[in-house]
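Notebook p. 47: complex prediction with 3UK.
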Amino acid sequence: MPNDMRTVAWAPGDVRTAHRDTFGRESLPPRELWPRLDFTGIPELRYPNRVNCAVELLDRVVERGDGDRTVIHYPGGRWTYRDLLTTANRIAHVLVDELGLVPGNRVLLRGPNNPMMAACWFAVLKAGGVVVCTMPLLRTRELVFTADKARITLALTDTRLATECEEAFTRRGDGSPREGARVVHFGAPDGAPNAVGQSLEQLMRDKPAEFTNVDTAADDLALIAFTSGTTGEGKGTMHFHRDVLAICDCFPPYVLKATPEDVFIGSPPFAFTFGLGGLLLFPMRVGAATVLLEQGTPPNLIKGIQDYGATVVFTAPTAYRAMLGMLAQHDVSSLRRCVSAGEALPLATYEAWQQATGLNIIDGIGATEMLHIFISASDEDIRPGATGKVVPGYEARVVDAEMRDVADGEIGRLAVRGPTGCRYLHNEERQRAYVSDGWNLTGDSYKRDADGYFWYQARTDDMIISSGYNISGPEVESVLLEHPAVLECGVVGVPDVERGQIVKAYVVLRPDARQWAAKDMVKLLQDYVKAQIAPYKYPRAIEFLDALPRTATGKLQRYRLRERVT
Ligand code: 3UK
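Predicted complex, structure tokens below:
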């Protein structure tokens, strides 16, 4: 193993990896392409050489005598920290004793936010594995892509979402068999076995409640989080055990100011690191409780806030907008903190929420590459309309194409660095684009003012962000192109009051398909996309053209498609 992958060690001592499967280390970008990692911004970031983030977030709470405190509320009841620990320990035994997990192996998790998903997340890390959470909405081909990219042969899936996971684990994308693949179900009503074999609950039954945690190095890989790329294929971002702790020790104490008495709630799935942090890691870092909702739709969310007396909510700007209309029928007076991320928070939404609830939404920009939020503000630090100031532990600049600072008030590219940062899995090309001079370039254009506030302008790339979801135009194009009626197409985001942007497809039909009524053809193509990939990616608008705008070299000019609607 090359030595240069080591980063700062604060104390002399053992920095050896605990991973026997070294895929993670071997798949990191070359060290010179990493961002500069800086652990000096705040004292909390001086982690020891050996640390397992699951142990710090879970075992430690029970060790210090807080095992009887509630960690999870869910519609079926509640779990204490001890319940979560013993369940995770039993699952860890199953992983190691029954499923042959070797430290460093990746484990795919598929399920909505619920207690068993949380327990699986901790079990994998306790056993030295690497967690790869997937969005519940993903379909077979997206799961195949994930399993291929991260070389995964073991999946734990909620039984209700098992079919597509099973399919994805029988074959690889190239059609060859996925050797030795196992898919284990959890969450069947009585833990009963099902058509495909044993359930996780059954395998756990005789396992001890104690587990000897794997003594991981602080820079052993803990999770791979996938983001949808502009190239159409998701990019895997690699995060270490210490990164998981670092995000808990920056934004939550310094901006959110969470306490052990808080009750967290929100909508983003664990596969979106916004949700993983806000709904699992941050509450547990302070010994607080979290409400896990399987469907975090605005009606469910506002009802959950009322029913569980939630004090901290994490959701997207569009959800705040949607909940505004429901405030008259719900009591949300328990709320203390409202966090918004994923896309820019419109000033109108901030102001309307403030008027209706008296609460100032905490906007924060985060990114999968950075793991969580790095610019934000709360309380009297909020400047409405701005994202906020750099979060303690991080630094941020606005730069030009040559990485020089632009003057305050001028638009430039956002550059950020701190304890976490971008390391793409097997994607040197994107790594070179995201990291420049040791700084992470998020792909956003920003303005900074003289007081150090950052004002969001736009995305600098082609990504479509609709209702908080990142959607890649080229990915939708590639699916549409499979349809026999489609000759050519271009997919872009167009402005939308409700969703920020919507996916719009410009389609050139094949001559023999042109006799169809446009209305029927729109529905046909929309249904096709929904059946092939996650339904939120489908084009809500479709317009038919005779030809697409292209450059002389034949490249599609997406900006010209976007110009058609503005
Ligand atoms: C955009 C924002 C304006 C921005 C995320 C919090 O969104 C998260 O990660 P993604 O990888 O997307 C990153 C991109 O989304 N964005 C996010 N937040 C804001 N734009 N204002 C905001 N407040 O373009 C950014 O580059 O999906 C957010 C925590 C963890 C996350 N992964």
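Notes: Residues 1-7 have pLDDT under 50 and may be disordered. The first strand starts at residue 70 and ends at 74.
Next step: compare against the earlier run before touching the bench.
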